[in-house]
Amino acid sequence: MKILLVGFEWQGGITEYCEDALNDLGHTVKKFYYENHFVTLPLLGKIKRKLIRHFQGNKVNINDKLLKETLVFKPDLLLVLKGETIFPETLAQIKTKMDIPIASWWFDNPMLEVNGPHILRSAQYIDYMFIFDTFYIEDLIKTGFKKTYYLPFACNPKVHKKINLSAKEKDLYTSDISFLGIISDFRQEILRQLLEYNLKVWGVGALPNNDELKRNMINRIIPIKEAVKIYNASKIVLNINHPQSVFATNTRTFEAVGCGSFHLTDDKKEIHNLFSVGTEIESYKNIYDLKEKIEYYLDNPEKRQEIASKGQERAYREHTYVHRMRNLIKIVNSG
């Protein structure tokens, strides 16, 4: 099957993981990058207006290029990863000129206007909607996406794996507890209650200079290769899901477990369908439960390692991007 994969560069390596998986499955894949929505900057007056005009113009340019690319490549499937800036009018033209199936896989709350201003008007053109969290399925169907399916995140065993660290890397990355992600307010509240431990916090966040959490924080964007080193060096990889993950969990769960790390995540409904909690992964229900489990697993390294190993085996067996893309293509082919 010829697949035009419409993706983005800014979030992890999901576009590349999907491309790699589709190639492994024997498909012919062409990748097309779109630009994400405008990030608000602290700019005033003419500068900000000029940037916004430039971005709006670039969105039109991206849509024009996507239409031309589709007509030239003549894919059997157009697969859009999110696609906040893809106009419904562009999808309508593709449908008119080629009548190929269009699928979309969403990783955020698609019902928010800030996330999906165009996707919510594209229901009649998207034949298959895939969503990372079952919580949104009913609302998407009501919006008009009649064929909506749950498709969770995954890991890429070629990237998310056990690696050997140098002595210098061990010194830099080793911690009892690590958290990697955007250090937003709701996460800060939890992380501040863990300062008694050997905690390292990796990611971007605005903290005042007198905040004690700042001493534990490496405040910068973390590349994928470095994230793998962090996961490998951590005794416990902590997860604090964004509120938009209502029933499901984020990429961190699959990627950390794929690295053979012991993963402790906030408890979500779908986690229990993906892993055996307490055997392949561990979860917590509140801050008291979190601290209790931290204490237990720091004191029991053999149990911690047993769970980490079984979790990696499960992730490689059922939760890779090859599994996800195979399932997606099967659904599309079944009509």
Report on this model:
The structure is a single chain. The protein has 335 residues and is of the alpha/beta class. It has two domains: 2-154 and 320-334, 3-Layer(aba) Sandwich (Rossmann fold); 167-318, Rossmann fold (3-Layer(aba) Sandwich). 41% of the residues lie in helices and 17% in strands. The chain contains twelve helices and twelve strands. It has helices at residues 14-24, 45-73, 88-98, 137-143, 167-173, 185-191, 224-233, 251-258, 271-274, 287-299, 301-318, 321-334; strands spanning 2-7, 28-33, 77-81, 102-106, 128-131, 148-150, 175-180, 199-203, 217-219, 234-239, 263-266, 282-284. It has a six-stranded parallel beta sheet with strand order 2-1-3-4-5-6, with helices on both faces. The protein starts with a strand and ends with a helix. The model is unreliable at 36-57 (pLDDT under 50).
